[in-house]
Write a structure and sequence with these properties.
The chain has 403 residues and is mainly β. It contains 3 helices and 31 strands.
């Protein structure tokens, strides 16, 4: 237990195997008292043209608004979340994700800002894997490795978007069919990703996928968060707690070694909240390899667990909080290490290292080449399902973490 500013106490507790539906209900119920606001307007889902891709496809921007006026905007291109407007402790709304200025930038610039990433999120070492005795050679786009599915992956595709009717909120389903051989992955992969914004200030992202041939899958959302607001500078003094006692150390090329190491082997103990800018002292080489954090943390969960508390991030200056829950076994914490000031974001400011952080809920990097990691194989007749919740709150009052 760590005692932080304003007398707020933060707890990290292991979940006890509750089912996904019950966990979602718990998350929503805990969030219900966060804002204390009254309904300003009915929840709404609006859309408008956003331009045309270099290939001639029309792209739309969608805006989800709940009755507290919390707003989430996303594109049909890659499901890119361009903006999340949430209140601070004084009720002042601000955008808490990093974005770009134009469709062309989302198409061409690196960084995967806010996008659905896959068919395999994170890295596959050597840009290849073996499945059923066959070697699949992927497209290297991160040195010798494949990152986030390849150079023309899901974040570069235009998805079909359809509104959904849900109780107490707004939702939209994004659909895309990735053909057999796309980025050299096997199997025709049919995907549906649903974004739901509830009146309890919860953004839920639910993934469903099926295949007609044995393949590997791993999805995540690549939003960069800055709880002080887009363009406010470094997140190094914001605080982070991750529900993980172990992580997967990496080699110099950022591919996991295959080891699952205890976090307690370093001064970095994510069972307590700590500044995002802190360093791994006895594991300093890990920070050198990644130029900061770019590490997968193994969430504390039993094999039978569904939805699990993954992380809490907190900005003492604004009082904003994000709680993250997921059905995934890991979360990748990345501190925008590749940003060097060459990109001017939607805030009008140049983005630099530690300008934002990610909470990429996912299976582990390079799992197809690491048999001791949880499997990412998907077979015909099976259905891949994954759900992640981001709950937005402030420290006035701050909901307790779930038991």
């Amino acid at each position: 237990m760590t005692d932080l500013t304003g007398g707020v106490r933060f707890y990290l507790q292991r979940k006890s195997g509750a089912g996904e539906r019950r966990a979602c209900a718990i998350a929503a119920a805990l969030a219900a008292g966060v804002t204390g606001g009254t309904a300003d307007a009915a929840p709404a889902l609006d859309h408008a043209p956003y331009g045309t891709t270099q290939g001639g496809q029309a792209v739309e921007i969608f805006t989800m608004t709940n009755h507290h006026s919390l707003r989430v905007r996303f594109l049909s291109l890659g499901g890119v979340i361009t903006e999340i407007d949430v209140p601070d402790r004084a009720g002042r709304l601000d955008d808490v994700v990093l974005g770009l200025n134009s469709l062309r930038e989302y198409e061409t610039l690196p960084g995967h800002f806010g996008a659905i990433t896959g068919r395999y999120a994170n890295r596959i070492g050597g840009a290849q894997f073996t499945l059923n005795g066959q070697i699949y050679h992927l497209i290297a786009n991160n040195g010798p490795n494949t990152l986030h599915g390849g150079p023309d992956a899901l974040d570069r595709q235009v998805w079909t978007v359809a509104p959904l009717t849900v109780p107490d909120g707004v939702a939209a389903m994004l659909s895309y069919v990735s053909p057999d051989g796309d980025q050299n992955f096997p199997g025709t992969l049919t995907m549906h990703v649903t974004y739901t914004l509830t009146n309890d200030d919860v953004l839920q992202i639910a993934y469903v996928a099926s295949t007609d041939k044995d393949t590997v899958v791993n999805f995540t959302n690549h939003s960069y968060f800055n709880l002080a607001g887009n363009g406010s500078g470094s997140v190094a003094d914001q605080l982070l707690l991750v529900n993980a006692d172990r992580y997967t150390p990496v080699a110099p090329d950022l591919i996991p070694t295959g080891e699952i190491a205890p976090v307690e082997s370093t001064p970095l103990d994510f069972r307590q909240m700590m500044p995002i800018g802190a360093r791994l002292h006895s594991a300093f080489q890990q920070m050198v390899y990644a130029h900061g954090y770019d590490h997968n943390f193994v969430l504390n969960k039993s094999s039978g667990d569904g939805m699990t508390f993954a992380a809490r991030a907190y900005d003492p200056r604004t009082g904003r909080v994000i709680d993250c829950f997921t059905t995934e076994p890991g979360v990748q914490v990345y501190t925008s290490n590749g940003m060097n000031g060459s990109v001017v974001g939607s805030s009008g400011t140049a983005y630099r290292q530690t300008e934002g952080f990610t909470l990429e809920t996912q299976h582990f990097p390079d799992s197809p080449n690491k048999p001791n990691f949880p499997t990412t194989e998907l077979k015909p007749g099976q259905e891949f399902r994954s759900t992640t919740i981001f709950r937005f709150a402030t420290d006035a009052p701050l909901p307790p973490l779930p038991r």
